[in-house]
Design goal:
The complex is a heterodimer of chains A (257) and B (458). In chain A, helix 2 packs across helix 6. Chain A has two domains: 208 residues, Lambda Exonuclease, Chain A, CATH 3.90.320.20; 32 residues, no CATH class. In chain A, a hairpin with a 5-residue loop joins strand 6 and strand 7. Chain A contains eight helices and seven strands; from the N terminus they run H-H-H-H-E-H-E-E-H-E-E-E-E-H-H. Chain A is α+β, with helices and mostly antiparallel strands and 257 residues long. The longest helix of chain A has 19 residues. Helices cover 48% and strands 9% of the residues of chain B. Chain B is α+β, with helices and mostly antiparallel strands and 458 residues long. Chain B starts with a helix and ends with a helix. Chain B contains 20 helices and eight strands. The interface between A and B is large, with 72 and 79 residues.
Chain lengths: 257, 458
């Protein structure tokens, strides 16, 4: 990936955390190890060890009309092979999940290549060619982007991001895809993201302590860094809003401002 | 002050480059690509306005099965047993075409065009200018050609009211005028049929994204150019390009996003083609605008964050539009799949506005429009794919010309992941393409050549 830092206004802990995710060189901490087969099982699109299904022949076997742009842009491995497009969707709790949907969405834009995404209030969809998705899902689940208690893989029945946490500190899930193992202190998935039961439990490790989640957060919160104190961000957002209104009336009203 | 003086005062001069990044025309005044002056663009508009397409195979099949006047998009709900007719229309396309030509042309050597396509399965017709000039709207060439085709079939096969002449109209015009649509064998280069267009100035925006992709044979930059031209022509059509400031706004958008002016799109794509992301395209767009003097630092905040200002917001908008297109080409091109186009536009504009403190594409309309498009094309709301949208669709129409070219680029780069692909939705345009005028097949080169002719005159 090319080196860059996308600027972001502010110098408070939240702004600085946000800037971190907008830096292509930033390597998130790896918190857990999950095998490739377990990732495939959690995604639930195919059985581990089976071949990728394809939606079109490999690119080098296809006869495409000449187009200089297609020669400039290098396709991903999944695109080269003609893989089907598959998805993973995360629900991020408003109780200090490391990346709320809009920041997860921006992080995808800064770091990923060859993807489709969509951010709703409490869920963020990610679609990629299947072998690209397997690799990306591993990165997203193994690193600090994922917290076992506040982030969940949910492709259906995503409700729960804004609900109170349960007695073990876990985000509510109507499909009960994961359980807290009181003996090990780890969160274990018993169902795939699509809520299909798994053959065996897959551990995603221990939740991070609350204090650590608060230092990692990229969400302004009145109990921590209040959004009202984000002076620079408010200044920029207000400015963009004002210029959009002026330019919407007549573009040259923005000139010189 | 008129448009020419307004743009002269701002020294609006552009270089035009082709899809390979080679220069086609140097130091062209911006007005030379205006639909009001550029001959290639004017020829495109005239071609569209004079066009009619008759799908003879569809008419023959409808008559053979008695499935006439159906309104469904897929399949036929209306079949009339007893009125079937087995007429060899396709096999006699030459004779029918000759009769149509004879009836629609005004003078022996006028500009009438009747082309037989795909072995007689289709006819592509350009009605003569003299006949179109006496028309009041876009239906004129289509109605005249449709009636001519119906008469030709009736006469050639010697039909009478007692042997089936009454259903020929239904085979050509579908259920019109019982319904406001024409789902028979008749169409044109733009689907706009006056009773069905729900607003003024939308006619040139009624082609599906896939239609444009088919007309330009999936050539990304030419597809983008044709789409951008139609979009900005629609702005001239709808009154949005009135006032020199707005006229310039649209011409700059057309130049930088649609026609690869100053090679901005090509350069950014080239730099990011191998390992770029939307984020790196955003940074390159900001840097290019700063290097070219379009934006400059207005204020440095205590954190070190720089707020930019621009002395030329329309030019900034066109750089953003070019960057947005490059981001789509890089991201959807890497995936070789079109579905990420609204997400890419969202990401690009959302991040860019917060990184600069300057407005995003079309003053927020690009971001707002694609949030809706993404929402209604994913998850439980998922409907059509990007290729099946037309810019006149309520999901796309609110951005004034800067989104559809990106959708076209994404569909050109799609390697076959879409259910609604150009072969399915726009097969007729893939076939018609062979007889289309050069201006529509290769818009970048044609517009640049016409612009060169105006150099020095403006």
């Amino acid at each position: 990936m090319r080196e860059f830092q996308i600027p972001y206004p502010g110098d408070d802990p939240v702004a600085n955390n946000r800037k971190k995710w907008m830096n292509s060189e930033f390597t998130p901490r790896k918190l857990r190890e999950i095998s490739d087969d377990d990732i495939v099982s959690l995604l639930g699109h195919r059985k581990p060890g089976t071949a990728y299904s394809s939606v079109h022949p490999p690119l080098d076997e296809m006869k495409e009309a000449a187009d200089p742009i297609k020669e400039l842009v290098v396709p991903t491995d999944g695109a080269k092979a003609g893989d089907r497009i598959r998805y993973i969707q995360f629900a991020d709790s408003m109780h200090f999940a490391p990346l709320p949907p809009w920041m997860r969405f921006r992080m995808y834009g800064a770091r990923l290549r060859g993807f489709d995404s969509l951010a709703y209030s409490g869920r963020t969809l990610l679609e990629m060619r299947e072998r690209d998705l397997d690799e990306t899902a591993k990165f997203l689940v193994e690193t600090e982007i994922f917290d076992a208690s506040r982030v969940a893989m949910r492709s259906v029945t995503v409700h729960g991001f804004s609900l109170r946490l349960d007695e073990d500190g876990l985000m509510f899930d109507a499909r009960r895809r994961y359980v807290f193992n009181k003996e090990t202190g780890e969160v274990e998935y018993v169902k795939t993201q699509r809520a299909t039961p798994l053959d065996r439990r897959i551990s995603v490790g221990k939740p991070l302590p609350e204090d650590e989640l608060k230092t990692l957060t990229t969400r302004y919160h009145t109990a921590l860094t209040s959004p009202r104190d984000a002076d620079e961000l408010i200044k920029v957002v207000k400015r963009v809003g004002e210029l959009r209104v002026l330019g919407g009336l007549r573009p040259d009203l923005v000139d010189g401002r | 002050m008129d448009g020419v003086e307004f743009m002269k005062e701002r020294n609006d001069v552009i270089d035009l480059y082709d899809e390979k990044g080679d220069m086609l025309a140097e130091a062209i005044p911006l007005q030379a690509i205006s639909p009001l002056r550029n001959q290639a663009i004017r020829e495109m508009i005239k071609t569209i306005k004079r066009s009619a397409i008759i799908n003879l195979k569809k008419a023959e099949q409808a008559l053979k099965t008695g499935a006439l006047g159906s309104e469904m998009g897929v399949g036929e709900e209306c079949q009339i047993p007893g009125c079937e007719m087995d007429l060899d229309i396709v096999a006699n396309a030459g004779a029918i075409a000759e009769m149509i030509k004879k009836w629609i042309q005004v003078d022996e050597d006028d500009d009438t065009v009747v082309e037989i396509v795909d072995g007689g399965e289709m006819l592509f017709i350009l009605a003569p200018t003299k006949r179109v000039d006496v028309g009041s709207d876009l239906a004129n060439p289509r109605v005249n050609v449709g009636i001519a085709a119906a008469h030709a079939i009736i006469e050639y096969f010697n039909l009478s009211p007692f042997s089936g002449s009454e259903v020929i109209k239904a085979a050509i015009f579908g259920r019109y005028p019982q319904s406001i649509t024409t789902k028979g064998a008749l169409s044109g280069l733009i689907p706009a049929w006056p009773p069905t267009v729900d607003g003024v100035g939308l006619n040139f925006r009624t082609n599906m994204v896939n239609d444009i992709v088919a007309m330009t044979n999936k050539n990304t930059m030419n597809g983008v150019a044709l789409s951008s031209i139609l979009e900005h022509v629609a702005m001239f059509d709808s009154g949005d390009a009135i006032h020199p400031a707005y006229e310039r706004y649209h011409l700059l958008g057309l130049a930088y996003q649609g026609l690869n002016a100053n090679n901005v799109v090509y350069d950014i794509v080239k730099a990011n083609g191998a390992d770029g992301t939307i984020g790196s395209v955003i940074m390159d767009t900001i840097k290019r605008a700063e290097d070219d003097g379009v934006i400059s630092v207005k204020e440095t905040l205590p954190s070190g964050f720089k707020i930019y200002k621009t002395d030329d917001a329309s030019l900034w908008n066109s750089y953003v539009a070019a960057g947005q297109l490059a981001a789509v080409i890089v991201n959807c091109g890497a995936m070789r799949a079109a579905q990420g186009v609204p997400a890419t536009i969202n990401e690009f504009n959302d991040i860019l506005k917060l990184a600069t403190g300057l407005p995003d594409v079309d003053y927020g309309r690009g971001l707002g429009t694609t949030i809706g498009t993404a929402f209604y094309s994913h998850n439980i709301y998922g409907g059509a794919g990007p290729g099946a949208f037309s810019p006149a669709n309520p999901l796309l129409r609110h951005c004034r010309g800067f989104i559809s070219p990106c959708f076209v680029a994404a569909m050109c780069l799609d390697a076959g992941t879409q259910m609604f692909n150009p072969e399915l939705t726009s097969g007729a345009f893939l076939k018609i393409r062979t007889v289309l005028p050069e201006v529509m097949r290769n818009p970048i080169k044609s517009v640049a050549e016409s612009a060169l002719e105006l150099k020095g005159a403006l």
